[in-house]
Queue: 2 jobs
Job 1
Amino acid sequence: MAGTVTVPGANVPSTPLLKDELDIVIPTIRNLDFLEMWRPFFQPYHLIIVQDGDPTKTIKVPEGFDYELYNRNDINRILGPKASCISFKDSACRCFGYMVSKKKYIYTIDDDCFVAKDPSGKDINALEQHIKNLLSPSTPFFFNTLYDPYREGADFVRGYPFSLREGAHTAVSHGLWLNIPDYDAPTQLVKPKERNERDLIGPAMYFGLMGDGQPIGRYDDMWAGWCVKVICDHLSLGVKTGLPYIWHSKASNPFVNLKKEYKGIFWQEDIIPFFQNVTIPKECDTVQKCYIYLSGQVKEKLGKIDPYFVKLADAMVTWIEAWDELNPTTAAAANGKAK
């Protein structure tokens, strides 16, 4: 863990946006000293910490934060047999935090991600930017060359269809890393020094079965991204990728990563075309229905590649069942249309 830094005089709104409507989910195996850097931005919010690995280990959280911490024993106690859908010894365990949260919005971050600075040297409040992204529309059906026409100072370019300028609800805001890129293991090896300068979609934010006892790891965020994008496209929901930036401090060991990713590197040549070609039927008008349908397609189409995908498809169903058990209000609303 890199040394902690305290940020004096950070530019924080007097009243934090969505203070009572947002939880911050953090998966970790270590003490959360990194929160000191984020304190000016995170302290007003409630944290849900999902402890991976040894549940008997004590995780230290800096004083002054409002948080709840769950370890593997808690997950097993709360979900019972359905705990099998939550990964162990992999950051994919974070999705348990999404499930137990009762807030409308979720922000998730890893413990090796620090505050970045803008070109003027000012600290970037990534959380605030994500919130602004979610509270403004997206343009998923037609590309705007000024990135986000809803940002202050931007607008729609010449030729952008007027009928699409109302935009779509933004379901996901996906920021980017500065410093250490999110490469797969082979690319890490050949470019070791390179540096780079919920309510709508919650039930689909499942990070799959990864890590301990599974033949694959480090594909958790990609699996969630592929599933979510297909479902968002089907339900006419938007996804924003780009701003804000955060600073990624630590590069993991590429040889360890290669062992985790090895099968995924081969499998992705079939997985990506699968998501490119899958079509969700019109009658699937809620996230849950879309995800259950997708799980059936995973079992039918990808199950031919390896038995792992049959197991994953079953876990996808278990995930939805567990989600609906812990979020009965959301489940009831899903009997109508997506909200």
Job 2
Amino acid sequence: MLGIVRQKMLEQSLKKIRPAVSVLRSYSSAAKQMTVREALNSALDDEMSADSKVFLMGEEVGEYQGAYKITKGLLDKYGPERVLDTPITEAGFTGIAVGAAYYGVKPVVEFMTFNFSMQAIDHIINSAAKTNYMSSGRISVPIVFRGPNGAAAGVGAQHSQCYAAWYASCPGLKVLAPYSSEDARGLLKAGIRDPDPVVFLENELLYGESFPVSDEVLDSSFCLPIGKAKIERKGKDVTIAAYSKMVGYALKAAETLEKDGIDAEVINLRSIRPLDRSTINASVRKTNRLVTVEEAFPQHGVGAEICASIVEESFAYLDAPVERIAGADVPMPYAANLERMAVPQVEDIVRAAKRTCYRSVS
């Protein structure tokens, strides 16, 4: 029932929000289009077909085809032994999945929202993330925890928090945050194939967004490397580093900045842990300026970690202070006008980039 209600709310909200999440498409010559939802579904299908050890579990992933239809068609194709509907008990089914991973199978656990992963954080951190180290490398935990993360629309504080920094602070976990369909498909396949536990942070407002994909991306062997960022747009005046939905906002900001003669380089982080520090530092050494963008709370965030990396490795190259754009330091408001004020907007990124370039900000 919760999935049905949330999906209806999402469909209504997307009509208002879609212009804000549209992105610059001119950086790919690929003619084929694929939604993020289709990319995730096809990645699961590919990996389940290639490896009988891969199985799915979570609330409504089977009979209902997934709360967001990410698992659509997989129950019919692979059966109830590999697509398992669970009770509403994150602590219970996550513990079962981690125990199964100890024995060599590869669970993919869906949280209807990562806010609910708090019910299972003991299993994710203490049981999954630490076991390989505590067993001196004898026990691998090949498991993926996936689902929507961060702000949606009109669902309040208990459904809108970003957990990227939370999980990225924990040794033993790999944390991935896709933006485009290419990201979603390539990174999810990489996460399933990885021998370590992976936290896979999606964004439900991107599920219905279409992106160009090449034949290479559609190939069943396609896989992206974990820990490698992507330069979505090359530039020379300022670096904008972002992840998940904020990459689209950064690209829109870069379009606006270009009209004012500012050439912005946009980095899609893709991987939060491990973080591609070398790509970020190389970009900053070229542009001499940095703006970080994230939806999460500002204190102890991903942007703060990037800032520390730049200060440690590339401080002498900076021509301006680093600008950090983040969500407001408050629980997410429910009212639509306050919600918009609580998350970064394109104009916030534009103003920050202009400040780093010492341009006047209207």
